C-alpha cells in the first residue's frame, strides 16, 4: 500500500465545519441557509467520492497535520476501511439534508438553524472518525461526535429530551473514557497507536493479560455507541429527537462510529491472528449474538414505531460485531458489508416513520391500520426495507447476511448461523405486523399491537418514545412496574375523603354526573364496540401521544425579533398556517371518516418522498449489484489487506 500526501482527507473534514459557519451566518434567511446545507453536503460528497479510485487501487491519500504528542502524529488517511464509513456518511448526509428540509418545515419546527448546524458538525466529526489514522486521532473525533450530536438529541428542549441527552452524554463519554484507557495501554505496551492492516506486530508478543485488558477496554468503549447489551438503553431513549436525527443516530454517524471503532480495533490494532491467539474473538461474537436475540425480542413489544426501529437497530448493529468476532474472511466481509446495507435500509424505515408523523401525527403501530391507502409510496418503501432487514434475496440485507452465514459455518461456529436464522424470523415478527396492518386491515377490523401481548410483549401505551421511563424497568428480563397501578394506589379512596367534601362535590356537579371515589367528575363516555379498554382509558385521561408528548416537535413561540429560523414556511418555502391544521387528524391515528385515499406522490412533499425513494433504491441496488455500488469492492479490499485472501 502506497501513500500520497494530499489535502483531500482534510478538506472532507473541514467542509462540514465551514458549512456550520455559513448556516449560522444565514440564520435569518432560511432558503439561503438550507441552500448552504445542500451545497456543503454536495461538495463533501464530491471530495470523498474522488478518493474512492485510489483506495481501491491500494493508494492512500494522507493529510499530515503535525505531531499531536511525542510519538503520535495527527494524520488523516483515506484507507479502504475509512472510505467505507466516509463514503456512506457523505452520501447519506446529502440525502438526509433534503429530507430534513421537508421534515423541519412540515412540522414548523423551532431552532432550525441550530439543527442544521449541529447536523453538519456531526457529519464532519464522523468523517474525522473515518479518516483518523491512529487511536488518538480516532478518540478525539469520537468525542467531538458526541458533543456535536448532543444538541440534536435534546433538540425538543423538553424534560424528556434533556433527560435523554444527559443519558446519551453519560453513556458515550463513559465509553470514551474506556477507549482512552485502552489507547494508553496500547501505547505503553507497543510504543505506537498507528493503525496497521493486520494489526500492530508488537501486540502478538505482549503480555496476554495486558493485551486482553486493552482489547476489553477498547471494544467495550466503542461498544457503548454500538449499543451492545447491556449498554444499549441510551439509544431507544434518544428517539425523542427529530426523526432525521434518529436516522443520523441509527444509520449514519453515531452507532456506526461505534462498530467502526470495533472494526479498527479488530483489524488494524490487534489483527485477526492476534485476536484469535488471545481468545477474545468468540466472547465478542457471543455478546453480539445475545444482543441480536434479546433486542429483537424486546422489539416485538414496542407499539411506538420509532422505538421498534430503535431496538431493531441494536439487533442489526450486532450483525457487524458478530462478523468481526468470528474472524473468518467471509464473516468479515459480511460484517463490514452490513455497515452500508443496514444504513440504506434503516434510513428508509426512519424516513417513512417521519413522513407518517409529519402528515398524520401517527406514531403508534396500533393506529396505522389502513394507512397504506393514505401513504402508499411511503408504506411500500417501508415494506421493501423491512424485507431487506429480514434478509430476503435481491435486497441489501440478504448479501451481507449470506456472507455472515457462510463465515459462521466455515469457521465451525454453526450456533451463530442458527442465531442469524432466528434473528431473521424475529425481524419478520416485528416488521410484518406494521406492513400487514397498513395494507390489509382497516381501523374497524384491526387487532391490537404489538404482536406479543403477554408480559414479555408488554402492555400497550400511547406516549411518544414508548413507555414512560419508570414503566420500562428491566427490558432485558421483561420485568416491569405497573405505573398506572402505583398512581391509582396514590389516589385517595372514599375512606380518605371527608363525607362533607364528597357531598359538596356531587352537589356542585349536578345529580346526574357520575363521581369517582376521589370525588372527581367522571367523563360520560360510552365505549364503542371496536374500542379496547386501554383505548377507552387513554381517551378519558388524554394520554394520546400528541396530547402529552409531542412526538418529534414542540410548538415553538415566535421570539421578540420575529425570527424562528423559518419555521413559518412550509416545505415549498411559502408561508403556512399552523402545522396542525394540515394534518388528517391532530391527535394521531385515522380520522373518524377513515384514511383518505391518495395516489403515489400525493401523500407528502417531494422533499420527503424523494429521499425515501433514493434510500430504498440504494437498498435494492446494494442487493442486486453490490460491487456496482462500490461498497463490496472496498470491503473485499479491506479483507485482502488484513488476511491476504482474495475474493
TrEMBL record:
Its main location: membrane. PANTHER family: HYDROGENASE-4 COMPONENT F (PTHR42682), NADH-UBIQUINONE_PLASTOQUINONE (PTHR42682:SF4). Residues 460-598 are annotated as: Disordered. The chain crosses the membrane at residues 6-24, 36-60, 80-103, 115-142, 168-188, 209-228, 248-267, 279-299, 319-339, 377-399, 411-432. InterPro entries: ComplexI-like_HydComp, ND/Mrp_TM. Residues 461-491, 565-587 have a biased composition (Basic and acidic residues). The keyword Chloroplast does not apply. It comes from Halobellus rarus. Residues 132-423 form the NADH:quinone oxidoreductase/Mrp antiporter transmembrane domain. This is Proton-conducting transporter membrane subunit. GO terms for cellular component: plasma membrane.
Amino acid at each position: 500500500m502506497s501513500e500520497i500526501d494530499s489535502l483531500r482527507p482534510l478538506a472532507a473534514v473541514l467542509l462540514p465545519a465551514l458549512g456550520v459557519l455559513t448556516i449560522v451566518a444565514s440564520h435569518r434567511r432560511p432558503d439561503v441557509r438550507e441552500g448552504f446545507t445542500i451545497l456543503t453536503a454536495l461538495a463533501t460528497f464530491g471530495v470523498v467520492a474522488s478518493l474512492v479510485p485510489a483506495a481501491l487501487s491500494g493508494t492512500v491519500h494522507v493529510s499530515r497535520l503535525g505531531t499531536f504528542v511525542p510519538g503520535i502524529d495527527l494524520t488523516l488517511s483515506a484507507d479502504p476501511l475509512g472510505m467505507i464509513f466516509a463514503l456512506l456518511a457523505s452520501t447519506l448526509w446529502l440525502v438526509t439534508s433534503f429530507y430534513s428540509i421537508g421534515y423541519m418545515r412540515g412540522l414548523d419546527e423551532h431552532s432550525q438553524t441550530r439543527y442544521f448546524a449541529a447536523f453538519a458538525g456531526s457529519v464532519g466529526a464522523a468523517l474525522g472518525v473515518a479518516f483518523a489514522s491512529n487511536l488518538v486521532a480516532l478518540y478525539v473525533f469520537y468525542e467531538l461526535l458526541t458533543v456535536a450530536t448532543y444538541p440534536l438529541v435534546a433538540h425538543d428542549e423538553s424534560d424528556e429530551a434533556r433527560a435523554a441527552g444527559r443519558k446519551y452524554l453519560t453513556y458515550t463519554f463513559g465509553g470514551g473514557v474506556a477507549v482512552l484507557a485502552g489507547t494508553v495501554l496500547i501505547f505503553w505496551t507497543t510504543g505506537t497507536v498507528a493503525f496497521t492492516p493486520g494489526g500492530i506486530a508488537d501486540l502478538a508478543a505482549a503480555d496476554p493479560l495486558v493485551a486482553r485488558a486493552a482489547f476489553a477496554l477498547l471494544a467495550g468503549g466503542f461498544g457503548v455507541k454500538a449499543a451492545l447489551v447491556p449498554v444499549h438503553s441510551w439509544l431507544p431513549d434518544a428517539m425523542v429527537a427529530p426523526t432525521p436525527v434518529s436516522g443520523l443516530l441509527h444509520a449514519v454517524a453515531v452507532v456506526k462510529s461505534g462498530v467502526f471503532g470495533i472494526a479498527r480495533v479488530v483489524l488494524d490494532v490487534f489483527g485477526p491472528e492476534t485476536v484469535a491467539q488471545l481468545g477474545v474473538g468468540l466472547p465478542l461474537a457471543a455478546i453480539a449474538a445475545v444482543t441480536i436475540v434479546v433486542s429483537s425480542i424486546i422489539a416485538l413489544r414496542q407499539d411506538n414505531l420509532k422505538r421498534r426501529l430503535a431496538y431493531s437497530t441494536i439487533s442489526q448493529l450486532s450483525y457487524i460485531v458478530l462478523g468481526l468476532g468470528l474472524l473468518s474472511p467471509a464473516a468479515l466481509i459480511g460484517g463490514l458489508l452490513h455497515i452500508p446495507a443496514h444504513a440504506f435500509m434503516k434510513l428508509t424505515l426512519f424516513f417513512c416513520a417521519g413522513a407518517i408523523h409529519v402528515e398524520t401525527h401517527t406514531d403508534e403501530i396500533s393506529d396505522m391500520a389502513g394507512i397504506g391507502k393514505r401513504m402508499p409510496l411511503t408504506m411500500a418503501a417501508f415494506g421493501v426495507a423491512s424485507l431487506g432487514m429480514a434478509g430476503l434475496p435481491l435486497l441489501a440485507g440478504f448479501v451481507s447476511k449470506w456472507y455472515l452465514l457462510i463465515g459462521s459455518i466455515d469457521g465451525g461456529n454453526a450456533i451463530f448461523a442458527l442465531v442469524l436464522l432466528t434473528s431473521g424470523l424475529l425481524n419478520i415478527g416485528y416488521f410484518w405486523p406494521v406492513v400487514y396492518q397498513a395494507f390489509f386491515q382497516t381501523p374497524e377490523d384491526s387487532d391490537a399491537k404489538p404482536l406479543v401481548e403477554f408480559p414479555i410483549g408488554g402492555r400497550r401505551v400511547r406516549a411518544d418514545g414508548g413507555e414512560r421511563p419508570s414503566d420500562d424497568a428491566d427490558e432485558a428480563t421483561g420485568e416491569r412496574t405497573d405505573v398506572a397501578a402505583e398512581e391509582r394506589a396514590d389516589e385517595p379512596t372514599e375512606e380518605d375523603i371527608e363525607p362533607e367534601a364528597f357531598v359538596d362535590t356531587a352537589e356542585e356537579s349536578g345529580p346526574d354526573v357520575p363521581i369517582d371515589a376521589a370525588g372527581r367528575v367522571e367523563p360520560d363516555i360510552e365505549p364503542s364496540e371496536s374500542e379496547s379498554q386501554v383505548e377507552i382509558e387513554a381517551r378519558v385521561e388524554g394520554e394520546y401521544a400528541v396530547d402529552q408528548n409531542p412526538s418529534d416537535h414542540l410548538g415553538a413561540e415566535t421570539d421578540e425579533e420575529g425570527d424562528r429560523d423559518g419555521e413559518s414556511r412550509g416545505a415549498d418555502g411559502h408561508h403556512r398556517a399552523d402545522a396542525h391544521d394540515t394534518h388528517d387528524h391532530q391527535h394521531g391515528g385515522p380520522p373518524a371518516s377513515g384514511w383518505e385515499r391518495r395516489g403515489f406522490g400525493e401523500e407528502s412533499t417531494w422533499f420527503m418522498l424523494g429521499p425515501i425513494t433514493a434510500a430504498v433504491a440504494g437498498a435494492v441496488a446494494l442487493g442486486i449489484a453490490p460491487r456496482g455500488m462500490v461498497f463490496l469492492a472496498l470491503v473485499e479490499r479491506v479483507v485482502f489487506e488484513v488476511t491476504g485472501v482474495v475474493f
